[in-house]
From TrEMBL:
Principal place of residence: nucleus
Lineage, highest ranks first: Eukaryota, Viridiplantae, Streptophyta, Embryophyta, Tracheophyta
GO molecular function, a single term: snoRNA binding
Protein name: Nucleolar protein 58
Chain residue ranges for the region called Disordered: 404-547
Species of origin: Linum tenue
Basic residues composition-biased segments: 537-547
Matching InterPro entries: Nop56/Nop58 (IPR045056), NOP58/56_N (IPR012974), Nop_C (IPR042239), Nop_dom (IPR002687), Nop_dom_sf (IPR036070), NOSIC (IPR012976)
GO CC annotations, alphabetized: box C/D methylation guide snoRNP complex; small-subunit processome
Family (UniProt): Belongs to the NOP5/NOP56 family.
Amino acid sequence: MLVLFETPAGFALFKVLDEGKLSKVEDLWKEFSNSDTARKVVKLKAFDKFDNTADALEATTKIIDGSTTKSLRKFLKTHCEGEKLAVADSKLGNAIKEKLKIDCVHNNGVMELMRGVRSQLEELIGGLGSQDLAPMSLGLSHSLSRYKLKFSPDKVDTMVVHAIGVLDDLDKELNRLAMSLREIYGWHFPELAKIVNDNVVYAKAVKLMGFRENAAKLDFSEILPEEVEEEVKEAAKISMGSEMDEYDMANIMELCNRALSLAEYRPQLYDYLKSRMNAVAPNLTALVGELVGARLIAHAGSLMNLAKQAGSTVQILGAEKALFRALKTKHATPKYGLIYHASLVGQAAPKLKGKISRSLAAKAALAIRCDALGDGGQDNSVGLENRLKLEARLRSLKGEELGRSAGSVKGKPKIEVYDKDRKKGTYNPSTDAVLEQTPKSVGEETVEMKTKIDEEAPATEEKKALSLDEKKKKKKSKDVEATEVTNGDADGNKKEKKKAAEAGQTDAVEDGVKKKSKRKRPSELEEEATETESHTSKRKKKNQVKE
């Protein structure tokens, strides 16, 4: 069995003299207590020295990533034929086994063996002293640290984070200085604030003019248009502002100089940010622009942290307060955050901003990962391709909205039937039935109208008379029916009253019968029955007579 051991000076291959001692892992460290016992366990077979620090860094980084270099493969091919190889990393062992077909071993015994070899490395490798090994290990460690940090002037996103922060602070400071200048100089010349709206132009005009009395003598052609210049001069003659001394004016001049110096520095800072963004994240810049991309990176902390975020997180990045407030109050969550200021979202209609921001965030997440994890020196082809797709998506969404507004309920536009004959001009006049009439004079037309009116007049009078007679007959028939109905109702009411009276008498008789404690005689019962029969017969006769 052979042991592959990595040193800052190169790769070393040790031959294991007694493999049985590897089974006793707990007692293996005792074999490396001194150099004599260590030489009885392992023996140096071959050593491959690095040519320079670059080769050492390349070999070390490859081993860390679990792969091999060309020099290491040649070294192992020449010295490891038909032998097992003990390695310190299982990934490296798998790579060697796949490419070189060499059986590799990695277990606790091998790790303890590596530890013993490291403790007696200077004694086991002849000609390698501590005075040579120490500077080699220090130089390699520094090189490896730089590689892990991936230090590259084109991939420094920290400068982007600071640049966008300075740019935002600069805008706030410019606005604050401009408002202070307008407020202070407004006491002396208040009309100028209404005439000149731009803050930088206002500061330049104040610096050139000073006191308002000097406006008539000065030339503002380099700063203001001719119309505005004349208006400023006329307003200065009739201004209602208060007077100001030299000391106060000197303070205003100093304020103008500060504001103008910051205004001159801002384009330079923006150009620097633009160049850094094109170098650090070209695909993201092509999709959302320099400012929005820089703000996304600054909000996430770095480009790598932003690359770890999902598309849904990129979409609402910057709207965390609104998101948690919506979740707490159980309202609708926000649809966009910092990505709202992208040009593609600004072009969309208010109803489509949510859809296009979701699509843009998904494409931006892919572009960010290409920028963060892709190889150096890449272009912005991914970002430009995705931008074209998003523009096509935006046009299709706008087309759907136009179809829904102009078409039917289902969103399909109404299409008129195409008529070939109409387009060719072959019109069939025989389908129209139009009577030819001779033109008449105005006098004849008036005579005809009068005769028609005279003929129609008696007919209309007869119709009116007939309609009146019919109305009278209808009224009489309705009155007769109403009287009959009222008489019938009266007779019916009388009958109902009599029936109620008879029912009351019978109830009273029954109550009297119940109240009597003694029973009636059968003779008395017969007399009562005959009386009731006579009464009922009389009533029937009366009713028949009335009918």
